Fold this sequence. Notes:
Number of helices: 6
Structural class: mainly alpha
CATH architecture: Orthogonal Bundle
CATH class: Mainly Alpha
CATH topology: Globin-like
Strand content: under 5%
Amino acid sequence: MSSPRPDIATENDIKLLVDSFYDKVNADDLLSPIFNTLAKVDWKKHLPTMYLFWSSILLKTNSYRDQPWPKHAVLPVDAAHFHRWLTLFKATVDEHFSGPKSVEAKNAAASIADTFQNRRQLFR
């Protein structure tokens, strides 16, 4: 019998979530080209930014001060990309965590994907 997974509660948990998620993104045939070939993400800069982003959302640290939409608006992504992003994110949460914050993380990701997808349709 395996021990229960902890909930997301610390900065280290955020780092584990973000690093594990982007490991999946980088291995994904659909998403990796968007991040690495088209956007040419500088992972040494991007990952710490994502730690701040998710820490602000889940731990209420208020440490993220940027606006994510403009950077994403220019990318050639569609519903399939958003679906895959969300599927990988939820799977990553479920692999490592369980509890109310984990549910909050998955709900926040779904809201972000939905918002970005809706904005893309409005700005076409």
